[in-house]
# Entry
Amino acid sequence: MTQPTDIRHLQTALDLAALTVPVLPLRAGKVPFANCPACRENVCGGRPNMKSPGPCHCPRPCHAWAAATTIPATITGATWATAWKHATAVAYHPGGTGLTVVDLDHADAIAWARETLPATRTVRTTRGEHWIYRGAMQSANAVRDGVDIKSTMSYARWLGPGTGTMTALPDAVRALVVKKPSPVRPVTAPLPNGGGECRHRTPAFLERGIAMAEQRIAAAADGVHATVYRTFLAVLSTHGRCGCLTDTHAERLFAAAQTRGESARHCSDAWSNARTALGM
# Structure
């Protein structure tokens, strides 16, 4: 007799926990549940879709990767009882068990991995493959087209044990998340009246504008992509034509966006699109 889906997911979670793999339930859209009333609907300040823990005041982090656990009493307890009834998948915290998942989203990404990375245990996904290595590292999204790194402070869907022998995390994967200077395009619009000192904006006005833009990005409850683009557009519209806006200011905005989960590539694209929209 086939077990109900919620029972299967619960049993999978318990089996993984017995192997010291930290687990958590996922709802539709591969999104974690909020596990206390204070955190439901993201009111605690977690990042969009609850994919990262926010500054909630619960006794312990209660959602996203920070909720992953190996404690059977937590997995089967009242807090997650409703979650298992509506769960669509089980996730695990790779970094919590000393692993790194290279998430390959399409055929080109898989071809790149086969040419570049040492073979390791492979798990098929809906669109591509997970390559799993022994060793934990910093997680990062969009390290190249169709490639995400899931390890510390991240979670991955459990899609089965996979095939092949797991090998040690190679330097080639670690190198994918080495921080590089943000690809900021300098603002090159001509200064008013042929150049010289900005006559209609003061340094304090510019500093306030950048600080407000950083706050707007940080406070985005959802739609971070759109918020970043609109904020870049507003900054460039107000400050981008007088010659006072520098790469340092742009780097601050990029950093604010990346703190909210945007990749350097998305920041660069949003900046470029905003400049194009303004004819700069």
